[in-house]
Amino acid sequence: MLEKDFNTIVTKSLNNQAGFGFKIPDERSTITGFHSKNPFDVFGVFDKHMVCWESKYLPKPQSFNFNHLQDHQIDNLIKIYELMGSDRCLSVFAVGVDFGRNDKRVFIWKNDQLYQIKERKANQQNILKKEFEGLTNYVKIKKGEIDMAEILEL
After folding, report:
1. What is the mean pLDDT of residues 78-107?
2. End-to-end CA distance of the chain, in Å?
3. CATH number of 3-26+36-153: 3.40.50.1980, 3.40.1350.10, 3.40.630.40, 3.40.50.620?
């Protein structure tokens, strides 16, 4: 699975669970040579919450380097959370990790937990493989979908 496939799962999950999801197309160069920057990967609506989602995917348990997360992406997620609050917003940074067989986990940091991610990025503190193995803030991909209601409860 690639990161784009992971984002397809997120979008499909939103659309199939009485919500709305849209994958923002990847950045492209314009005719004038300017590059657009996507604010994050997916947006949508679920259970009266605006959903803003940035995804990263690891094909196996390994360290996650925050160089893969752009400053503007985490800043945009935090800004939306600050403007809307957790009662109307689900701003998510997610790292999917394939643990093999039928064990594909989606580690979730949402809303006020995004400050921890921003701090770790600023301090260049990777999420280590061993740390992933001990985290409990995840949902599993089941039958090609993520249970969005389960994410709201995390």
Report:
1. 96
2. 25
3. 3.40.1350.10
